[in-house]
Design a protein that fits this description.
single chain; four-stranded antiparallel β-sheet; Butyryl-Coa Dehydrogenase, subunit A, domain 1; 11 helices; Butyryl-CoA Dehydrogenase, subunit A, domain 2; Butyryl-CoA Dehydrogenase, subunit A, domain 3
Length: 392
Amino acid sequence: MRPGYAVAMIDLLDLDAQLTPDQRLVRDTAQEFVASRVLPEVGSWFEDGTFPARELAPELGSLGMLGMHLTGYGCAGLDAISYGLACRELEAGDSGLRSFVSVQGSLAMYPIWKYGTAEQKDEWLPRMSAGEVIGCFGLTEPDHGSDPGSMRTHAKQDPSGDWILNGAKMWITNGSIADVAVVWAQTDTGVRGFVVPTASNGFSAVEIHKKLSLRASVTSSLYFDDVRLPAAAALDVRGLKGPLSCLSEARFGILWGVTGAGRACLEAAVDYAKSRIQFGKPIGSFQLTQEKLAWMAVALGQAGLTALHLGKLKEAGELKPYQVSYGKLANVRAALDIARQARSVLGANGVTLEYPVIRHMNNLESVLTYEGTQEIHTLVLGETLTGLAAYR
């Protein structure tokens, strides 16, 4: 990580002043990577519906960005706020980039690190942290998104002790490029997780096309047709607490990441407002435009405060799942509102890929839905407030 690199950012509350030197170094490293390797190309990736994961993964690994909040096995062992800052800067480039890193580290590596055997950890984690092996996380199904407890994918042990896995998963980031999948399935003793090499007989993955959001990201359907796995493929956790704990890790990255997307949109709107001339002067000199920019900055500052506070709670070991829901709900909504306002400031130019705004706006429509929809996180907070579950 190279010190001394920084991009001028809109930060009216001066939140970055609260960062340690090491945290600033993580921020600067991620910024430099995005500026040099992502921003020059990401508009074309989005337009073409491609993402060069195999090319970028080793570079991200060499920077310590894969499994960055984990310890051992070549992982960087960063603190929670550093992890959040990296997600923020990566998503300022594109939500697809941050999604790749989140899935690799929090959804594929984390369950192996947390629940895997010593053999599973030794086999997969060093190569995943280096970006030599790409992982994915199979929970969502075609008919069961917000209700994973009703999943139909199942695994059954035969007399030899091997597991036989059957079913399907959908909307899986990295699915068709992954070398290993962490797959959650019903068993006779409840939901279990399995480490599934994608070269296994009976495993197949099909990329999902015609997306108008997260286009610079690989999204796939997974299929399991009598996939035979050894007994040692199972993770040591039972029930939905396994996959939900992984989602809490990833959602923490999201609530930080979207502040980067929101900031990128605000910065684009401010720059445009200062240079776009109408009625003989910059549109930024008109009161209506300044009001839009001011409220966007307020929303961004509030989201940044939420992320920083939750980061401190996580570092102290005090972060609760409902607080992660609060952050995901509030910050994604704020970032999406900022993106929509920025689009209006840019007018017709706001819908072209010459500017980042429409790309971020479209991406955030997916971020609003994945890893817990807005509705589900609303109900998490409702249950926390009332003690009454309203999911069914």
